Amino acid sequence: MSMRTDRQIRPAGKTALEQMPSYRLNHIVHQYQQTVQSRLRSVGVSMLKMRIIMSLRSYGQLTVSELCNHAIAEQPTMSRALDSLEQQGFVRREQSRVDSRLRLVTLTDDGRRVGEEIHPVIMEINARMTDGLEPEQREAFSQHLGQILNNLRTM
Amino acid sequence: MSMRTDRQIRPAGKTALEQMPSYRLNHIVHQYQQTVQSRLRSVGVSMLKMRIIMSLRSYGQLTVSELCNHAIAEQPTMSRALDSLEQQGFVRREQSRVDSRLRLVTLTDDGRRVGEEIHPVIMEINARMTDGLEPEQREAFSQHLGQILNNLRTM
């Protein structure tokens, strides 16, 4: 008796599920995170912490809620990650002089060094991800991603 | 003193970060999950459980490790989700008659009913996600997603 006779597989379903944009997007993001984590294991920071460091590296200084948006986390998770990054000596939090309710987050020198370690790896994985796409296909793909993000946000 | 003078923003960084495919992909998947969860709150199952139900709905019957691949979870997390789905009466686990080390997972009638509730909502969100893209653009986008997934898996 073959494996096949033990199972009720509907091959038509396979195609439909795996061709859904959401299926591919979920798998891409999962695989991307696996790749980043395995390439940057030695740095010893979580994916969320990497996104925080990358965001601060780009923007210079962000409020906690801006960080929640860019680095994708709810406020409590973000606060715990920032506590930990502060303990590691990678970020500094200070009260805004303009609005005392706001706390502004910045990278320390050590944090900036971690950023310089992470950044080229993330850039390289991003470049290799779109290997095989012509420049105009990359451009179209990037535009489509922007459109889809916009569609989801206004849905 | 304006908000701006309190902060060291580098606007050039903003563009670079937000245009990275990984940034957009992360945000798309996050927003997609938020949308699905808010639309399907009444069903009362987590995203992982929805992915499990959608996978079983498509394939009929899967081993635990096949489910880990399709629904994206490590074995321990998957086992806990399956325990819970079994308690809710939505899935059934049985030993393969062919290979006694394998456990095959199937939807129960109740699980199938949940699948029929989830499926059209997921399909509609997927369709609306690509609103504004011409059929040939959708096709190209889908091909690009396939290519990128393949690139990441062979990186």
From TrEMBL, chains A, B:
Domain (HTH marR-type): residue spans on this chain: 18-150
Keyword DNA-binding found: yes
Protein's UniProt keywords contain Transcription regulation: yes
Keywords of the record: DNA-binding, Transcription, Transcription regulation
GO molecular function: DNA binding; DNA-binding transcription factor activity
InterPro entries named among the record's database cross-references: HTH_ArsR_DNA-bd_dom, HTH_MarR-typ, WH-like_DNA-bd_sf, WH_DNA-bd_sf
Protein name (database record): DNA-binding transcriptional regulator, MarR family
Record organism: Paracoccus isoporae
